[in-house]
Amino acid sequence: QVELMQSGGGSVQAGGSLNISCVIRLNSSEFCMGWFRQVPGKEREGVAVIRSDGATRYVESVKGRFTISKDKAINNLYLQMHNLKPEDTALYYCAARGGRCVAHIDLVLNRPWTFDYWGQGTQITVSS
Fold first, then answer.
1. Which residues of the chain have pLDDT under 70?
2. pLDDT tens by residue, 60-95
3. Which of 29, 56, 70, 77 gets the highest tally of CB atoms within 10 A of its CB?
4. Distance between CA atoms of residues 35 and 64, nearest Å
5. Which residues contact 7 (CB under 8 A, 6 or more apart)?
6. What one-character-per-residue DSSP string does 55-104 give?
7. Distance in angstroms between the alpha carbons of the first and the last residue of the chain
């Protein structure tokens, strides 16, 4: 059983920064990992994904503001968020899949069902 444990997050004013992390104990040299977010009444939205070869993709609305990364030495997945906006307010989830992404990395952001394991969720609130 793979467990994902998230930490970080919280509340910040618009323009501020927050970081969230996720411990992912996944014994696989190949992986597909990402961050998704969801607000009540809306579908889960892909924010950023990273592949085992280091390739990354971001949803258009966060490009240039968010950075996804993975620490190879320890099993941590990170999301650095800068210049946060009120519309970034959501419950953020980390997700992982052992093995390759099942679709081209450009498509994975729109396919949350392809991820096998999920974190517990971390609330990010940005006030104007």
1. none
2. 999 999 999 998 777 899 999 999 999 999 999 999
3. 77
4. 16
5. 20, 21, 22, 23, 122
6. -EEE-GGGTTTEEEEEETTTTEEEEEE-S--GGG-EEEEEEEEESS-SS-
7. 40
